[in-house]
Design goal:
Number of strands: 10
Order of helices and strands: EEHEHEEEHEHEEEH
Distance between the termini: 64 Å
Largest sheet: 6 strands, mixed
Strand content: 35-45%
Helix content: 10-25%
Radius of gyration: 21 Å
Number of helices: 5
Length: 202
C-alpha cells in the first residue's frame, strides 16, 4: 500500500559528475511510493514497476506543464508524479491514461530531445481504446485537440478517429464495435481500396 500523501513538494540538492544542481522540485502522488513494510521486504523489488506495461510511451513536449493540463482535461489523465529542474522545466513526469502510464518531459533541443513543433511534426500515433470513443473524442476536441481524421466506423471493426493535441502529438481514439472474420476483413479491405482507386481516376 502506498503512503497517504498528496500535493507534496521536496526541495533538494543533488550532484552529478561533480556539478551541483540545487533547488530541484519533486512533486509526487501517493501511488508512486510503497509502505515501509513493502520497502523492507527483501527480494521483493519489482523488475517491472507496478502499473507499467511492456511498452511505455515517453513524449517530448514544448511546455510540459500546459501539456499535462491538456492531457488531464482532454484525455482524462491522472498525474502520478512530476520532477522539475531548477529552472522550472519538467525533466520527467508520469501520467496515467486508463490503465497505462505515459512519461513526458520538456524538450531540450541542445541535448537532442525535441518536441514535434521543433521537428515539424511526428510520425507516431498513440492509440487509446475506450468504452465510449465518441465521448472521449468530443472531450479531446473540446479541450483543444484538432481533428485530423473524423471519427467513424472502420472496415476492420473499430469506431476510430485521430486528433492532434496542441503540442503536436497524434492520438488515435478507438472503440471496438465488431469482430470481423479474416476473410471478411480481406474482402472489405479490397473493396475499400478499389473504391479509393476508382475515385482517384475522377
Amino acid at each position: 500500500m502506498g503512503y497517504s500523501l498528496s500535493n507534496v513538494s521536496l526541495g533538494f540538492e543533488t550532484r552529478t559528475s561533480g556539478n551541483s544542481i540545487s533547488g530541484a522540485n519533486f512533486e509526487f502522488s501517493s501511488s508512486n511510493f510503497y509502505s515501509e513494510r513493502e520497502v523492507q521486504m527483501a527480494g521483493k523489488v519489482r523488475a517491472v514497476p507496478e502499473g507499467t506495461h511492456t511498452i511505455t510511451p515517453h513524449l517530448v513536449v514544448r511546455g510540459a506543464d500546459k501539456a499535462i493540463e491538456f492531457y488531464k482535461k482532454g484525455l482524462g489523465a491522472e498525474v502520478k508524479g512530476i520532477f522539475k529542474s531548477p529552472d522550472g522545466k519538467v525533466m520527467h513526469a508520469a501520467i496515467k491514461i486508463g490503465d497505462s502510464q505515459v512519461f513526458l518531459a520538456d524538450e531540450s533541443p541542445e541535448m537532442g530531445s525535441k518536441a514535434p513543433q521543433t521537428l515539424g511534426g511526428t510520425p507516431v500515433v498513440l492509440n487509446i481504446y475506450v468504452e465510449n470513443v465518441d465521448s472521449l473524442f468530443n472531450q479531446a476536441v473540446a479541450a483543444g485537440a484538432a481533428v485530423t481524421q473524423p471519427l467513424q466506423n472502420q472496415f476492420w471493426g473499430d469506431r476510430y478517429g485521430q486528433v492532434r493535441d496542441p503540442f503536436g502529438h497524434a492520438w488515435g481514439l478507438a472503440q471496438h464495435v465488431e469482430d470481423v472474420a479474416p476473410d471478411e476483413l480481406e474482402r472489405r479491405g479490397k473493396a475499400l481500396f478499389a473504391e479509393m482507386a476508382k475515385r482517384a481516376q475522377h
